[in-house]
Amino acid sequence: xxxxxxxxxxxxxxxxxxxxxxxxxxxxxxxxxxxxxxxxxxxxxxxxxxxxxxxxxxxxxxxxxxxxxxxxxxxxxxxxxxxxxxxxxxxxxxxxxxxxxxxxxxxxxxxxxxxxxxxxxxxxxxxxxxxxxxxxxxxxxxxxxxxxxxxxxxxxxxxxxxxxxxxxxxxxxxxxxxxxxxxxxxxxxxxxxxxxxxxxxxxxxxxxxxxxxxxxxxxxxxxxxxxxxxxxxxxxxxxxxxxxxxxxxxxxxxxxxxxxxxxxxxxxxxxxxxxxxxxxxxxx
Length: 284
What we know:
CATH topology: Rossmann fold
Structural class: alpha/beta
């Protein structure tokens, strides 16, 4: 099964090699079966199977051998997350000694792990959830990556960069995968729809705690708050970037960016199978 539309550098753009995945993560064998086409696959509605599959992908990197976090937290799809890292690398192609701020790094710590594994970048990861940061720190410790990744807690849910950035910080770029939904109820409704589309009730496949899934005002409010705060710390990062799921939010963000003195605003399209998203990038 080929992963269509992934970045040319993405090591998973030719699909899943289950023979290799089973070597990387033997636990996956309990979830692999032949699909209707006679090919090895998993039940993608089973959250544990999906997590073990992604472990197999992640363990293909020599630097990563442990990746454990609560089943209540989001399990990120590795190929799609890796695409963001590769597009960021293209954006920073002339930079040296790259250091990234990952906003909302989550329990899985996935962007720092992939950035270190692919490019030896350094990271600061922030999150509002202490539980998520505890899981992320355990992952960092278990893989001996303390020299690459530092974690910081955001104590004020109204802020994104405030309270995280320190006086001597300078980043090559910030990155973020913002919450999509405006409320817990909206997130739960979306989960139920996804479950129905898979023909079952396995809502846990789309698990995630509140701060991972929703933000008051939804994606638009988060992005505009992020944009505004970036204007207060314009000297702290060469680029500010974020995934954006809704096209109309890009247009709104670009209009506001001009008022705040952004000198360059660009959109990097990302097409992954039938899913269309984009990375928005701006600098002052």
